[in-house]
Amino acid sequence: MEATQPTPKKTLYSAIQPxxxxxxxxxxxxxxxxxxxxxxxxCLFCMADLHALTVRQEPAALRRxxxxxxxxxxxxxxxxxxxxxxxxxxxxxxxxxxxxxxxFTYMGELSRMTQFKDKSAKHADNxxxxxxxYPALMAADILLYxxxxxxxxxxxxxxxxxxxxxxxxxxxxxPGLFVVPEAYIPKTSARIMSLSDPTRxxxxxxxxxxxxxxxxxxxxxxxxxxxxxxxxxxxxxxxxENKPGVSNLLSILSAIxxxxxxxxxxxxxxxxxxxxxxATSEAVVAALAPIQExxxxxxxxxxxxxxxxxxxxxxxxxxxxxxLRKVYKKLGLYxx
Length: 336
Ligand code: TRP
Prior knowledge:
With 336 residues, the protein is mainly α. The chain has helices at residues 24-40, 49-52, 59-75, 93-102, 107-111, 114-122, 129-144, 157-173, 218-226, 244-257, 261-267, 273-299, 302-331; strands at residues 11-16, 42-47, 84-87, 149-151, 182-184. The chain has two domains: 11-184 and 302-331, 3-Layer(aba) Sandwich (Rossmann fold), CATH 3.40.50.620; 208-296, Tyrosyl-Transfer RNA Synthetase (Orthogonal Bundle), CATH 1.10.240. It is built from 13 helices and five strands. It has a three-stranded parallel sheet with strand order 1-2-3. Strands 4-5 form a two-stranded parallel ribbon. The mean pLDDT is 95.
């Protein structure tokens, strides 16, 4: 009853850090599906620039990456008038609610987060309080909009669980404060693996040859696929356990064509791995071409991007303010 919704549609929230390339894995596993989700839900797609600050960023690069991510969201087909595409730091309520949530999150909980442990190992010279409190800011992103659904990959599942724990804890102290969000697990979602180590997820933080960036030029894409790790057999067969490299290529190919990896294996039966690599890279090049073209056009119109982000920050701010006021009031912060 309490958490009022602006419309009967459920709210879905997702964010990406503007800290580098968007990979083919991000596109096939997430972004591409967002376009469909935007039909059924009130969607917010955020550029989590405050989260990016938990590791050192070069200011000019951060600025460029944020703008680029906004253009890419739109180039992938998201409609910034329908969905809310906005920048986290443009909406001050994120940082404000994060502070409150910090006061309801235990040190023990935060120290158990595997991402914190991984990142502190990786950035041993900069284990800052922001890195530690990162999940509370993420919880603020989500809870601020009374979100019902959050599409999460395996790496963010623990953070969403913590968000649910914080929301439940606060709801039991202050009934009706937050909608408790759930993980949105897409019915069909491609899990794309690294090209150089197909037993690991494709990641922008690994070596450049191991991932395809959505903005890679066609020749770069072809070269990366030619170098992709396969195996010492010759049979094109979908068998992720025993043939992770070949299976990954089949997954990519089928994800793009909307078929199944088994069907693609069947279609390429008797051919050599080179043929599989070529089919896959051509399919990827063709799928990314229209996105890259729209992206270039958008990046040529910085004013359009700025205007979109300004308008959307205002829309987000309006929604966020509603929740934050409610929180302040319920917690007993003196209102005048
Ligand atoms: N932590 C997420 C990541 O690195 C990004 C993120 C920030 C996010 N806030 C969020 C994802 C809220 C979902 C919901 O991938």
